[in-house]
Amino acid sequence: MASARIALDAFGGDHCPRHEVEGAVAAARAGVHVVLVGDREQLERELAGVADRGSLPLSIHHAPDRITMDDHPGRAVRAKPEASMPVCFDLVRKGEADAVMSAGNSGAMLACGLFKYRRLRGVDRPAIVAALPNAEGFTFVLDVGANVECRPVNFVQFAIMGAAYARFKGGRAVPRVGVMSNGSEDGKGTDLTRAAHELLGAHPSEDFAYVGYAEGKGVFDGSLDVVVTDGFTGNVALKVVEATGRLIGGWLRAAVTADLRSKLGALLLRPAFARLRERMNPDSYGAAPLLGVDGVAWICHGGATPFAISVALQQAARSVDEGLMPQLAEALARNAAVVTAAKDAARDDPAAAAARKEG
Amino acid sequence: MASARIALDAFGGDHCPRHEVEGAVAAARAGVHVVLVGDREQLERELAGVADRGSLPLSIHHAPDRITMDDHPGRAVRAKPEASMPVCFDLVRKGEADAVMSAGNSGAMLACGLFKYRRLRGVDRPAIVAALPNAEGFTFVLDVGANVECRPVNFVQFAIMGAAYARFKGGRAVPRVGVMSNGSEDGKGTDLTRAAHELLGAHPSEDFAYVGYAEGKGVFDGSLDVVVTDGFTGNVALKVVEATGRLIGGWLRAAVTADLRSKLGALLLRPAFARLRERMNPDSYGAAPLLGVDGVAWICHGGATPFAISVALQQAARSVDEGLMPQLAEALARNAAVVTAAKDAARDDPAAAAARKEG
Asked: What element of type H or E holds B227?
């Protein structure tokens, strides 16, 4: 089976196009077909030193413009149709690529997904899914940035998509889902989380087991497969996790180089620390798919390293080759009645919503 | 100078009254006057084995009832006036103690603070302040749980109180303050954070330097002294930090015991790891003051160990002895005009608020 072709926005990340090109070359060497999208001249220059370029499944598609981190997502996508990011989506629409990847403006990725791919049937708001390592594997957290403000029914759709993704990634058949909250008791949370908690409790799906409120503990101890939250809270949590990891990593480095005895110990621990470093390195698992649009789109960290981009390109290719989209569409179709019932309940119950507010 | 007398709710935490009693004994041995508040008979039983009890500044005040984690905060405080937690506040009001500490229901602590102490002048919403370790010292994050829903002007008051607390804890004269957000650009964040960001930018105080939006990175890299946020986001972030630390701690333990070579390395690193464990242990700094009420109240984690409670009691005593309350009141008085201007701006500008919403 030929690998999927990934249109890589080569002018997205903080270190573009160098990191993108290096990541693309590494992924191409691993067999992924990559189309580098962006200014052809600059890309040719970056590729000049790659000796085996002729043998790699790597091509360039020229795009003269770029969307920056400071651009307003929706406006930029309309105002800059020739920018590398929207051109990537056009390539997929024309059948010249199978998926898009970018380390650029994630709001613009969402806007492109909505304008160019359209929404999947059964989805009001697409979501970005982060894989956070837990004691046993991964917990999938969504949304981590697509929707700063959410409605309760969005959480039901996030649960369906998150569960489908957890299954796709090899997790259990009926993933356990929680709603991110500031406590486990029913009365905790915001108006939004309480309403989502009630909807998820009242409208069960055969596709996942709703467990209730999740605190930080539940994200990391292996007791949950999926945690649903609004894109603001999810993004803050994700960045706090990464920053905590960096802080502890720095402490650890300082501890093992403090004196000769510690340095000797660290020498003996070198293989163990290498494994630990790999576990702690978000580059190994840090790319995130945008779920809920009718096409494959992956988002990398703005600061993504070439290694991170290479891993992400391989993940994106696998998600095409192994049929993520059909599985997602099936899960949404299977749960159409659950979503409709939840929407009706949310609509019919303004008094309950007000009461919760007074609470 | 005689140390402050702390009224300790001995029936608050998950392991009460054992952890409370053990923590109180340790703090009393360090010179803190502790009044254990709760069921006298049970407390006497817990203290039975303490040989030096007679020489310790430790007493019992009987309270026949208790507030549990499942109790509704506001209702419980009214319905259970004889519970150990509200009785602690009564002791301070009667002049028989100088501060309250509890590892119990933090919502009930807030309710007690509001009903029994009243609010400090210049504060609409009290806040719980967490100290998170950063690369250079601590970042103080508030609110981490008192107010699930906030208004923009609350953030201005949190900034004033957080800056006063950072100064009290020995930080720089003009602390650097950020608003927790999902990105550093002005357009990021929710309606709430954008409005708070604008208010803080437009109404500068001589007491702190408003730096702008903070992401996870800013919390931990030493570039900020204070991060203000709503109590839901702050609480989620705090719990995610703790859970990340536990996860990495578990990985580290697994790494250093994986084989003989690693175990030998770990033996050499024992002193270094002991220091690291201390840095990573939230028990050393995990107690949090409730700021904005007219009296001293400290909150511990429900699962607090005796060590954590002992450290917290000493911190609480120091906050009384070193005059936290007068410093806080002075800071609020000094910034009364800033708060008034921010309130006027927030009130006068419903159109701007709506425009932000449309965005």
From this structure: strand B226-228
Of A181, A220, A237, the CB nearest to B247: A220
Whether B134 sits inside 8 A of A216 (CB atoms) is no
Peptide bond into A143 cis (omega under 30): yes
- Half-sphere exposure of A326 toward its Cβ, with a 13 Å CA cutoff? 4
Dihedrals phi, psi of B103, to nearest 5 degrees: -105, 20
Q: What is the pLDDT of residues B232-266, one digit of tens each?
A: 999 999 999 988 888 888 888 888 888 888 888 88
| Contact between B248 and A280 using a beta-carbon 8 Å cutoff | yes
φ and ψ at residue B58, rounded to 5 degrees: -135, 125
pLDDT at A356 over 50: no
Domains of chain B, start order: 1-118+293-322 (3.40.718.10), 124-285+323-359 (3.40.718.10)
pLDDT category, A2, cuts 50, 70, 90?
low
pLDDT along chain B (359 residues), means of 10: 86 94 96 97 94 94 94 91 97 97 94 95 94 90 93 96 95 95 88 95 95 90 95 94 88 87 88 83 83 96 92 95 95 94 81 47
pLDDT in tens, A111-149: 999 999 999 999 999 999 999 988 888 999 999 999 999
Q: Are strands B58-62 and B138-142 parallel, antiparallel or unpaired?
A: unpaired
Mark yes or no for CB contact B261/A239 under 8 Å: no
Confirm if B44 and B333 have CB atoms less than 8 A apart.
no
**Integer Cα distance of A239 and A130 in angstroms:** 11
Cα angle: A209, vertex A215, A218; to 5 degrees? 55
Q: Do the Cβ atoms of A72 and B187 come within 8 Å?
A: yes
Output phi, psi for A137, to 5 deg: 180, -115
The token pair at B182 is 């999902």
- Torsion-angle region of A4 (φ positive above 0: left; ψ -120 to 50: alpha; else: beta): beta
- Give the pLDDT confidence score for residue B257 in this predicted structure: 87
- Give the whole-angstrom CA distance, residue A235 versus residue A237: 5
- What interface predicted TM-score (ipTM) does this complex get? 0.88
Mutation for B interface: A67, A106, A228, A240, most B CBs within 10 A: A240
DSSP per position, B240-299: HHHHHHHHHHHHHHHHHTSSHHHHHHHHHTHHHHHHHHHHH-GGGT--EEEESBSSEEEE
Beta bridge mates, B142: B129, B228
Q: Are B21 and B43 in contact (CB under 8 A)?
A: yes
Q: Which of chain A's residues have a Cβ under 8 Å away from the Cβ of B149?
A: 190-191
Is residue A140 within 8 Å of residue A227, measured between CB atoms?
A: yes
Name the nearest CA neighbour of A141 among A211, A208, A214, A203: A214
Residue A229 pLDDT exceeds 90: yes
